[in-house]
Amino acid sequence: MGFSKYIKDFISLIYPQLCLACGQGLVTSENCICISCLYKLPYTNYHLQPDNKVMKQFWGRVDVLAATAFLYFKKGSSVQKLMHQLKYHNQQEVGIVLGKLYGKNLMDVDVYSNADVIVPVPLHKTRFKKRGYNQSEQFALGLAEAMDIKVDTSILLRQYASETQVNKSRYNRYTNMADVFVASYQNNYKKIILVDDTITTGATLEACTIALQKAGYNQINIVGIAFTE
Q1: Which residues share a beta bridge with 68?
Q2: Are 157 and 185 in contact (CB under 8 A)?
Q3: For site-directed labelling of 13, which of 83, 110, 120, 206 has its Cα 20 to 30 A away?
Q4: pLDDT tens-digit map of 12-56
């Protein structure tokens, strides 16, 4: 074990690992995000507030048990840098690390901790093939490890690729996502945690929830990595 540590330390001298939020070097015990940046991240604590701003996004639109997001998202922030690394630079570990951290918090809240399965918002197969992974699934895997709840990517499918949601109004975001998703019912799952990366208007999650409810799932919680106010 000691020799292995020396090897890692030697390799880090040649190929230093950098924090994906601030760019500073990481020490051996840190993984993709330094302790300083983790301490400074803008945590919402929405999982402790039943009527939080994420939950209010879905009032009058779809019926969900609870909704939350781990972090606040602002342009130019460390959170935006992390999300960019996760989505576009193959830094899948960012999603897993953040999922593990938030999963530990959600374990203390019954509405989340007693779920049967975690379902990530799916990518269309063409986008998945191009990117090679689903960033929401990475976050789901981190949550699953911390909460001891399985991830199932077979329940919810994206039927066709939609246009980008960037710069669309709330109404146009919804119409852009209408009928994009389809779900299949599996009797052994009753309560779902539906996971996405960044929540803005909630249009994607709304469309996913409608598809899941059509398939017979009526107990749905929503969890995101970040929320754009």
Answers
A1: 223
A2: no
A3: 83
A4: 445 579 999 999 999 988 999 999 999 999 999 999 999 999 999
